[in-house]
Design brief:
The protein is α+β, with helices and mostly antiparallel strands. The protein has a domain of about 50 residues. It is built from three helices and two strands; from the N terminus they run ββααα. A hairpin with a 2-residue loop joins β1 and β2. It is globular, with a radius of gyration of 14 Å.
């Protein structure tokens, strides 16, 4: 089987966000930041509000960056 696989060369970007009134920093690749922003815009909510919702829903054993990636992987609108 011959597959054409393209993996972008992206380095994680660290950004500061406010989650439930507390500032924290997250490291995600630009592709994930763009997808999060698109979903937040489509839902007419702030990026911090979307990240807070993901944080509230994640299992305690999952770190926030991983939870965001899993959310985006399982959210079809993130691939628009």
């Amino acid at each position: 089987m011959d597959m054409d696989i393209h993996i972008p060369n992206e380095q994680p970007e660290k950004r500061s966000v406010t989650i439930a009134g507390h500032r924290t920093s997250l490291s995600l690749e630009p592709t994930f930041w763009k997808a999060l922003k698109r979903i937040a815009d489509d839902a007419d909510m702030s990026l911090s509000a979307l990240i807070t919702a993901i944080d509230d829903a994640r299992p305690e054993t999952t770190n926030l960056s991983s939870a965001i990636r899993l959310y985006l992987f399982n959210n079809p609108s993130s691939r628009a």
